Amino acid sequence: xxxxxxxxxxxxxxxxxxxxxxxxxxxxxxxxxxxxxxxxxxxxxxxxxxxxxxxxxxxxxxxxxxxxxxxxxxxxxxxxxxxxxxxxxxxxxxxxxxxxxxxxxxxxxxxxxxxxxxxxxxxxxxxxxxxxxxxxxxxxxxxxxxxxxxxxxxxxxxxxxxxxxxxxxxxxxxxxxxxxxxxxxxxxxxxxxxxxxxxxxxxxxxxxxxxxxxxxxxxxxxxxxxxxxxxxxxxxxxxxxxxxxxxxxxxxxxxxxxxxxxxxxxxxxxxxxxxxxxxxxxxxxxxxxxxxxxxxxxxxxxxxxxxxxxxxxxxxxxxxxxxxxxxxxxxxxxxxxxxxxxxxxxxxxxxxxxxxxxxxxxxxxxxxxxxxxxxxxxxxxxxxxxxxxxxxxxxxxxxxxxxxxxxxx
Length: 409
Prior knowledge:
Blueprint: H1 52-64, H2 68-80, H3 85-105, H4 111-129, H5 132-148, E1 160-165, H6 173-184, E2 188-193, H7 198-208, E3 212-216, H8 223-235, E4 240-243, H9 252-256, E5 261-262, H10 266-275, H11 286-289, H12 297-303, H13 305-319, H14 321-324, H15 328-351, H16 354-370, H17 376-388, H18 393-404
Parallel strand pairs: 1-2, 1-3, 3-4, 4-5
């Protein structure tokens, strides 16, 4: 969607709006040269200091170079030097994953490099979770939780938690980190991975009766699916703690969708779960939380998405010679980009939050500028879309806000 290329060389939602899926991770805010210690774990005073910035930079070089053996050796060395597994997972590996997303957004690495680096990170997480230091830390936490709750006859540990990504959400790395942290904190964890279809997720909850469901979503477009999952889990008697960039940096969308709790990162989630979640209130339907859906604009935009994309593409081709000269691949990518624009408009209508769309439009503009791509066609596309939806007042207001606030040129 430019004078010579689509908005990006790949569809614009290959990574979340924030650049990477960050829920379940924690970028380090520690003083240089020292890692955080999990409660009662190595890394507390008296344990060997680990130069976290140096370790992180060396691991970054290995991850970016696709060197799994080097990355594995660095991780094992850190554990054997006394770095607690939780600190390694969150302050080093989680921080690296966030950096991967930022580097892609700034066009300093390609999508393939991003995927390869993530694959190395995932391999390192698997190695850490299988290391004896991890098992020892988890066993100690389980024993401590069991002793603390000895008065209540029950299974060892804190309880059971299901960790899942909402239907359609493929960014599973944050959820994976959270699952490992909860194991380290003494929980029995059912890690269900990416893209969990809601009916199957609820069947699992009925079968296993966990104490809580930790639900992860990185892309805002997954919020309608998240809402369905939250309501269904609560109807099954399972409280939900939500996390991920999709729910907003302050958790506003978790509250909007009726989640029982929200956490900005894995440590916060573990601490919130340790305090216990209240049992869900009486069952309710998603529409009960969002009365504005009665105007049907979300439904109308969603159902007409294909037609809207076609109409905008036709207008761009008619009015801009550069678009008419696109190769078939460029045209295909532009159609994908337009579909994402309509999808983000729809989720802004679903939540009643125009900032979801203006934020997305601003992020898209930054992606264009980082790649040296003129963004004039982004404004043109939104203007055409506004004309197509001129009879839908909330849609017009959202598009006007994006055009007016400088989110697009």
